[in-house]
Predict the structure of BURP domain-containing protein.
Amino acid sequence: MAENFLIILLQLLVIMCSSHGRELGGGTKNNMNHHMMNNHHDIDPSLMVFLTMKDLKVGQRMPIYFPKRDPSTSPKLWPKQEADSLPFSLEKLPQLLQLFGFARDSAQAKAMEDTLRECESKPIKGEVKFCATSLDSMLDFAQSILGKDSGFRVLSTSHKTKSSVAFQNYTMLEDIKEMEARKMVACHTMPYPYGVFYCHSQTTQNKVYSVPLEGDNGDKVEAIVVCHLDTSEWASSHPSFQVLDVKPGTSSVCHFFPADNLIFIPKVLQSHAGFTSM
Ligand SMILES: *[C@@H]1O[C@H](CO)[C@@H](O)[C@H](O)[C@H]1NC(C)=O
């Protein structure tokens, strides 16, 4: 009963989320407007999502980029049967482009290629990854990592106020909470003609926090932050190292999750284990 309820909630959530999915080929055009306000002149504001564990404290103020995506133009998750009826591989890209009617040199073609390439890239050591093209396959993957017997919770960043400001300074408020998460699966939306989530899980130590934020304009956000304690296997080209000015393996790397990304963690049996973070 409770599980069914969770699944229904989750479906609603995912449908909601997919309707906020990244626009296909959505560039960083809009970010340029904000570029002048950026402290780090050479860094794209959309990368201003990284922090280290020592930045995670009440009163900390920092510029953060929270994308606000236009629901009307974003791709939806397809039912499993429909999604499974199409190939999902770089090799079949020409066929897919034809099917969706995208020119080879279009922005959409580039986005699809990047997504397929990312999905086919080898996981790093200690990582399991999977690109989900339907809700069912995402849930199956999450369940396979978290364990068949454990229920799970879904966490995502939620915006408590509506505003169009995507990049500004936020201050961390009281009540930063660490969520109990011995295992976790993170799923990120990918640019594609239909909903695709890049899901992955690392066996190295991670921490998940819920962090209340207040923007300079009064915006309230209940943000989900994931911290990776061991970054020694990460490519040195990972943008977080540039933003934080650290080297792989020398520092924890945390990042704020945009609202349309999902974190699955095992359900903890306690009286108040609810769906509050949804
Ligand atoms: C954040 O605040 C700093 C210091 O007050 C300021 O220099 C910077 O321009 C602000 N950034 C944004 C994105 O508003």
Q: What stands out?
A: Confidence is low (pLDDT under 50) at residues 1-39. The chain is about 25% helix and 25% strand.
